[in-house]
Amino acid sequence: MTMRTLIVLRHAKAVHTPGLADPERPLTDRGERDARRVGETLAAMGLRPDLVLCSPAVRTRRTAELALPGEPVEFERDIYEAYADELLALVRRADPEVRTLLLVGHNPGVHELVLGLTMHAGDPGFPPGAFAVIETGDEWAELESGRAVTRWSPKDN
C-alpha cells in the first residue's frame, strides 16, 4: 500500500479593509511572517508537495508564495468559498502519481475537510496560517479518511 500525504493549509492572517472585495484582501504583516514560518516548518518536517492546489484569492496566493517559494502552484477557482465536500472532490481528482498534495484555502471549508477526514474529537480550531498533515493509504480518487499526523498553528508555535 502506498501512503499519501495531504497537507491542508488555511491562508495566513489577512486585512479587513472596508470597501475592499473579499478576494482582494492581502495578508497583514503578521500574516506574511506566519506564512514564511509555515514554509520553514514544512521544510523542517521534510514535507515537500508534489502538487499545490490554491485558491486564487490574493491572501491564499501570497500564503502559498511565501510558504512554498519556487514551487509550482495550480490555482483552482473552485477552492474559494468551497465546502468540505467540494474540496474533497477536488483532491479526489489529483493524479495518482502525486504522493504529497498541499491544498491552500479558506475556512470553514478547509477546517471541515480536516475534521471530516480525521474524525478528530476535541478540535482546537483552525486559525489563519494553520495546517494539518494527514496520511492515508487511500488512492486520491477513493479518499475517505486519514490519520492526522500533526496540526500546526502560528498561535501555538
Pairing-aware structural class of the strands and helices?
A: alpha/beta
How far is the first residue's CA from the last residue's CA? 33 Å
CATH architectural grouping: 3-Layer(aba) Sandwich
Overall helicity = 25-40%
Shape verdict? globular
User: How many E-type strands?
Assistant: 6
Give a description of the structure.
The chain has 157 residues and is α/β, with parallel strands linked by helices. The chain has one domain: Rossmann fold. 29% of the residues lie in helices and 20% in strands. The protein has 4 helices and 6 strands, in the order βαβαβαβαββ. It has helices spanning 29-44, 58-67, 84-92, 109-118, and strands spanning 4-10, 51-54, 74-75, 100-105, 131-136, 147-152. A 6-stranded mixed beta sheet has the order 3-2-4-1-5-6, sandwiched between helices. Helix 2 (58-67) links the parallel strand 2 (51-54) and strand 3 (74-75). Helix 3 (84-92) packs across helix 4 (109-118). The longest helix is centred in the N-terminal third of the chain and has 16 residues, at 29-44. The protein is globular. The model has no long low-confidence stretch (mean pLDDT 95).
Brief characterization of the structure:
The chain is of the alpha/beta class. It has four helices and six strands, in the order E-H-E-H-E-H-E-H-E-E. The chain has a six-stranded mixed β-sheet with strand order 3-2-4-1-5-6, with helices on both faces.
Map the helices and strands.
Blueprint: E1 4-10, H1 29-44, E2 51-54, H2 58-67, E3 74-75, H3 84-92, E4 100-105, H4 109-118, E5 131-136, E6 147-152
Parallel strand pairs: 1-4, 2-3, 2-4
Antiparallel strand pairs: 1-5, 5-6
Helix pairs in contact: 1-2, 3-4
